[in-house]
Amino acid sequence: MNVWLLLGLLLVHEALEDVTGQHPPKSKSPKEPGENRIKPTNKKVKPKIPKIKDRDSADSPPKTQSIMVQMMEKGRFQKAAATLSLMAGQALELRCKGSKIGWSYPAYLDTFKDSRLSVRQNERYSQLTLLNSTAADTGEFSCWGQLCTGYVCSKDETKTGSTYIFFTEKGELFVPSPSYFDIVYLYPDRQAVVPCRVTVLSAKVTLHREFPAKEIPANGTDIVYDMKRGFVYLQPRSDHQGVVYCKAEAGGKSQISVKYQLLYAEVPSGPPSTTILASSNKVQSGDDISVLCTVLGEPDVEVEFRWIYPGQKDERPVTIQDTWRLIHRGLGHTTRISQSVMAVEDLETIDAGYYICTAQNLRGQTTVATTVEFS
Question: What are the extents of the domains in the chain?
Fold first, then answer.
């Protein structure tokens, strides 16, 4: 009876396989040699939940928001592009959203306090207007929101806007220069720029040496061309000295820029290197003396002099003269020598004592002194 029962169960099992195509649960016992080792396709897989980035993470930098728009024809506004090309003579209107807005624009417009430019702050935006534009107005216009606490304001880096505008003028491929000849100082520890900028975005610009006459390649290693700055000397050397100029070509026309004298200046940066020397430190009544204060420094860094002298409280009449000039110190190195000379005539006893000179530049000041005594 048991045999017939087992045979019946086996037949039912095979019938179910034929109908459903499914197999009974696998036995956990080890597989025999030759068994089917193909994994079933209906394996359950635990779904992966995608990780959501924390938008407020302290590690992620704040997103910047462009706040600048340009006014178009018929009162329409559009987001200001990174670069714009406008015909000279056109009016320019830019707006930046915010109740407190700071602006920057080409220094040329600030230098001459140009009445064509106006900036007005409204309740919700600031408005910059430039009338009767010229090629000389070519440059970067930018704005930023201001975060203010009382009278102290700082720049809001998350709310800024900028655009570089080429004002194209007939017959002017280069942004006009205030002079026909300019000096560019080459320092070994900083970049130097030959500022020949163009007014036409598509212009091809090359750099040339006057003597010996040849083109200077902008190879991307020593020299690069930046349309917003000019030709940039990345690591100036003494052999870069000389007179250079730029040449621009656009629309079948070409133009030569002003000339630039490149001077190499290997002078330490910092407070003035100052010395003082009196024509005589031992004097007699009735003598005349002069006291010389000298500074050797960077060619383009101005120096201011101040004096303290024995007869100052008694309003002793003295003569002070300040001068400066450029000198070459071998191997093509150029230095600025600045001097201040104090002259005192017909000496009296009140003129004896310390003569103190203070020289000051943008990086600090240096004070030196010498004594004058009656013998």
Answer: 65-168, 181-264, 273-374
